[in-house]
Amino acid sequence: MSLHSVPPVSLDFLASRPVEIEVSSSPLSSDAGLLLIRQFDERIHLTEQFAAALQDTRNPSLARQSIATMVRQRIFGILADYEDQNDHDTLRSDPPVFKLLAGRLPDGLDLASQPTLSRFENAVSIADLWRLRDVMVDLFIQSFDRPPNHLTFDIDAFDDPAHGQQQLTMFHGYYEQNQYLPIAITCAENDMVLLVGLRYGTCAAFLGANNDLRYLVGRLRAVWPDVQIHVRGDSGFGVPLMYDVCQELRLSYTLGIGMNSRLRAMSDALLKDALQQYEETGQPQRLFLCVEYQADSWLAPQPVVIKVEVHAQGTNRRAVVTNRPGCRVLPQAIYDEYTMRGESENRNKELKTELLADRLSDHRFMANYFRLYLHTAALNLLVRLRQAVVQTLPTSAELNLPADFPTEAIDEPNRKRFFNKRRERDPLGGGFASTWRTRLIKVSAEVITRARRVIVRLSSSWPHIDHFMEVSRAVNMPPPQPSPG
Question: What range(s) does the Transposase DDE domain occupy (predicted)?
């Protein structure tokens, strides 16, 4: 790293004396918190397995950067808000932390430049993408200490706007933009993304979802034969193709369906009751019923749960198709459980807007598919770390609920209180990617290379030093041993 001769900058906004800004000769970094995430990555081997899935077709005698080094450059860069290859033209040599992340001393060989990273991403083959799909499921399986009895898969699509002339981006009339339409399947039990797929911009939301489920269920039941799997999705996935594949794979499902004239007629009496109760009490009303319904395209009737809501803003009716037992007896429980898929939408929000997966700006479609995997790997690394540092959840007494009341049974108002109290107590375990950047990753540090060690000095006045120490204790704990069977 070279230090340029820069004259001091003087500012006069402070009345008592001038404020002068000088350039320090110390090797400083603004992203020292990434070192703890790198230590955790060493424990769960996420980037190692990711890199091992990629075939290196380069001439070994000419390659200066390993696949693992470039994978870590990109994944840790995404976590620190450096989503583009161009960012690494400066990060490759400064700050020194990025060299440590890649396994090099701060005064060692510079990391990969933008042209090198661009060639790396564009060299990815279809076979590499298939292997990365397998690795994502492998990492998901490894995240469990013991075989789960039940898993909930939330399946969703989100828009990914184009930034130029990317292959297979198309104009979507609803979003009013050129875009891709990726698909993501998230596990509600641990927030990890099991599967992502990049698709052309105007495809149907459910395109390929049936085959994705066949692949996932086959992989998981090969390891956990008795696991029960429930699938949730919005009305974009409420189509006969999805009902059929869920029944074929012995999955339970709750999928949204658009309200139509027949469903409205079936729920008119319930809406009338809700309006009457609202007028009498002045309190918002939520009423539910379960009906047998068969659309013209369905081979057989299915249970449909309808929610009728009346409040100060007006009325609202929503419906879901389900095959869950008990839907006729407890329709509200079925619907409220369906609405919990909002947490998976938060993962999509993190992936797209906070970890910037909407920057798929390579020209080649497969290169952008690979970039989507890089962003997803960054999210899963953060999700796993959140689980490792999460603190004790709020107790039932704090929510004025009976002792040992299960979290899954908390009603909507108390569920909001539960998550608010959790975030107050545990801002990192319950925090979004932006919270992690503010309170852990983006911290200034001095990096000193000695003969026998590398010293990273933090400021004792940093207001979030307690978070740093909590995470450091968590990442240095030995990983739990998987239970047999």
Answer: 15-391
In the chain the first and final C-alpha atoms are separated, in Å, by 52
The contacts of residue 38 (CB under 8 Å, 6+ apart) are 72, 76, 100, 101
Domain boundaries, the chain: 28-122, 256-330
Where the chain has pLDDT below 70, the residues are 1-6, 392-412, 419, 421-424, 479-485
As a whole number of angstroms, the distance between CA 153 and CA 141 comes to: 14
The predicted pLDDT at position 393 comes to 65
**The whole model's pTM is what?**
0.90
Pairing outcome for strands 314-322 and 252-257: antiparallel
Q: Distance (Å, rounded) from C-alpha 118 to C-alpha 332?
A: 51
Residues 6+ apart with CB under 8 A from 111: 65, 69, 73, 88, 91, 92, 93, 98, 99, 102, 104
Q: Copy the structure tokens of residue 285.
A: 């009303």
* Angular region, 83: left φ>0, alpha ψ -120 to 50, beta rest: alpha
* CA dihedral over 3, 461, 77, 36, signed as positive or negative: positive
Tell me the CA distances in angstroms from 317 to 103, 261, 308, one per residue in order: 56, 12, 5
Q: What is the pLDDT of residue 485?
A: 47
pLDDT of the residue at 395: 66
- pLDDT score recorded for residue 417: 73
Task: Please tell me the distance from the alpha carbon of residue 293 to that of residue 308, in angstroms, as a whole number.
Answer: 17
Give the three-state DSSP class for 153.
strand
How far apart are the C-alpha atoms of 226 and 215, rounded to whole Å? 17
Answer for the pair 111, 88: CB distance below 8 angstroms, yes or no.
yes
| DSSP H helices in 182-305 | 209-223, 240-248, 261-281
* pLDDT score of 93: 83
